[in-house]
């Protein structure tokens, strides 16, 4: 079974004219109608018995605020020290397509500092189309779900042309599914408007925010559309200016190349895995295994899945031994570790396609993807043949209700970006473009470490302390800060 790559836990100087719909209270979005109660999902209850849940109604189409409504599920990890409470800290784990209801509890369990927990009610939510927030579907079959949301690795132009048929079929299914009416409105801009409705529903004049991966683009869009309602904005593991557009998708291949030397050094230092005694030998083993598995898959592991699982597990230093163990098993014809499918895969993929295909326009000709594959397969051979290839966005319905939001430097100086130097999912190259677009609005902290996600998960005290100080005091570094490498804890 081919598992999806973890895409991510995802900006020019002048913003386009996108009307920010005011966060006025309507219907269920008045402060006195937010009724908190227990969260019904078992993982959330297990993670934190203090986590509470509720729902809000928001407009499907903000151009018609009194028209059809959809539900947004929200959660709260309330501060236990109200005397020190600053306000609310809305959070997003990334995606798009990932549920965020349990994320406040995950952050608390992962070491979110107590003074941050004391200062804020930490808020989570399922973005529109996801999980318990009026979910979308593309009626994907089990086989389509198993194929994942990144195309198979293309070695030739014919491979791209062959995959075009599968991509077109998925796009047509999304466009004719029972939730097709949501497609034009399941966008990052509308999710940002939903965030402002959450703010209004909680009775808060401003919103602080902690977003990871794709959540950085969501936060950037929110603070562009609602600058006067943005308090302290933290963007962790940053996408580039266009969010999850074709550029970001292709950049994933560079992310693997940036990150892979960390694994190669680890495997070379542990000869017991038999993958090589030098980083060069470990890299050669990657291509050897990929070629062998393309010719003869082993228990469902073909070349594309091998590349994808390797990419996926390089998100965390803690998973480097798991990557080595998988390679060792495949290299020695031993049973590989089980690869369970992700939960709610159909909704995850449908919501992801809805957002990334609806936010921006993608190339629409097979020939352009063939050219992109030819370039990236040479430039980034480990993954470029997959991330540059064709997907459903090439055949997405043309209807767009508004242009993308372009992130610029107009607004308060209240954005703190934090970024690993060797992040496979949101490479530093994209983060630098976002930093440039924000201008004086942002300060960026980079950590000399690999993996996806800095705060509060990573071991770099310098980077973590900078984020904590900003969230609790409002103070950022006076200029961009480069944090040196620190030993893993």
Could you describe the 3D structure shown?
The protein has 489 residues and is an alpha/beta fold. It has helices spanning 42-47, 103-109, 114-119, 142-147, 157-176, 188-201, 214-225, 246-268, 279-295, 303-313, 320-331, 345-359, 366-379, 384-387, 428-438, 461-473; strands at 37-38, 52-59, 69-77, 87-92, 120-125, 207-212, 230-236, 415-422, 442-450, 481-483. Helix content is 39%, strand content 13%. It has a ten-stranded mixed sheet with strand order 1-2-3-5-4-6-7-8-9-10, sandwiched between helices. The protein is globular and about 60 Å long. Mean pLDDT is 90; it is low at 1-32 and 43-47.
Radius of gyration: 22 Å
Helix content: 25-40%
Oligomer: single chain
**Which strands sit side by side, in order, in the main sheet?**
1-2-3-5-4-6-7-8-9-10
Q: Estimate what percentage of residues fall within beta strands.
A: 5-15%
Helix/strand structural class:
alpha/beta
Order of helices and strands: EHEEEHHEHHHEHEHHHHHHHEHEHE
Instruction: Please give the count of helices.
Output: 16
Shape: globular
Which blocks of ≥5 consecutive residues have pLDDT under 50? 1-32, 43-47
What kind of sheet is the major sheet? 10 strands, mixed
* Secondary structure tally: strands: 10
- Distance from first to last alpha carbon: 34 Å
| Rounded average pLDDT | 90
